[in-house]
Amino acid sequence: EDELSIMDNVPVSRGDMATLRDGEWLNDEVVNLFFKILERRAATTTGWPACYFMNSLFYPKLAESSTGYTYHNVKRWAKGRRVFDCAMVLVPVHCHGNHWTLAVVNLKLKRFEYYDSLRGPPGRVLLHLRQWLHDEAENKLRQTLDLSEWTDVVFKEGIPQQRNGVDCGVFMCKCADYIAQDGALDFEQDDISYMRRRMVLELLSRATLCEAPAALERPP
User: Fold this and answer.
1) pLDDT confidence tier of residue 158, bands split at 50, 70 and 90
2) What average pLDDT does the segment 135-153 reach?
3) Cα 134 vs. chain centroid, distance in angstroms?
4) Which residue of 14, 53, 82, 215 is 20 to 30 Å from 142, comparing CA positions?
5) What percent of the chain stands above pLDDT 90?
């Protein structure tokens, strides 16, 4: 297929881009390129929290292999101390193969956060990420991280909620976009069609077009 955009060996084809049409589920390639764009923005912008962005394959490799949770599968994903030099680690999670949610390891606030636009339960996601952070500290820092005071936060109120069965990927990507800017999650279902079109431009230009959540343009 025709390759429309690529960044850091993450390509998006014409077929991938078509998942940004209204009524379509976002696929992994679109999610991963968008997260690469967020990663580049975070590395070149001052004043926003330092963030580490995981690929959509991270969580399945960590927790959904035939052996269950397996740190060895991902121990080389983050090099050196980079995770622990960040305020947040953002993890896209593809639940049951048909729903996107976002998990955030918030090192600054010492908590594990879960954002689901359908407001469902996190299952074992936060438990697995807690174990991952513990294992990551032992592997990369050679120390035991005391997580006993860290909390789990599953957001039910005050976050955007989808009103259909197909827009979860856009909600998840844009939640990551806003959270990485310390922005309020002030968008809603009526914004999603516009956000899909905007994401097409962002993927093609390999840059986000919105400087800050407060600058969100409403569709005409």
Assistant:
1) confident
2) 96
3) 20
4) 53
5) 77
3-state class (DSSP) for residue 153: strand
Q: Report the alpha-carbon angle 181-182-183, nearest 5.
A: 85
Place of tokens 């959540």: 213
Reply yes or no on whether the pLDDT at 63 is more than 60. Answer: yes
Question: Please, which residues have CB within 8 angstroms of residue 110's CB and are 6 or more apart in sequence?
Answer: 149, 150, 151
How far apart are alpha carbons 71 and 63 in whole angstroms?
8
Q: Per residue in 206-220, pLDDT tens?
A: 888 755 554 333 333
- For the entire predicted model, the pTM comes to 0.92
Question: Known catalytic residues?
Answer: 99, 116, 168
Can you spell out the DSSP letters for 55-119?
A: -TTHHHHHH-BTTBS-GGGTTTTS-TTGGGGSSEEEEEEEETTTEEEEEEEETTTTEEEEE-TT-
Q: What is the helix (H) or strand (E) element at residue 201, kind and residue range?
A: helix 192-205
Is residue 114 within 8 A of residue 122, CB to CB? The reply is: yes
Closest among 99, 108, 93, 96 to 176, alpha carbons compared: 93
Residue 1 confidence class, pLDDT cut points 50, 70, 90: low
Tokens of 4: 């429309």
Burial class (CB in 10 A: 0-12, 13-18, 19+), 202: buried
- Position of tokens 């500290």? 137
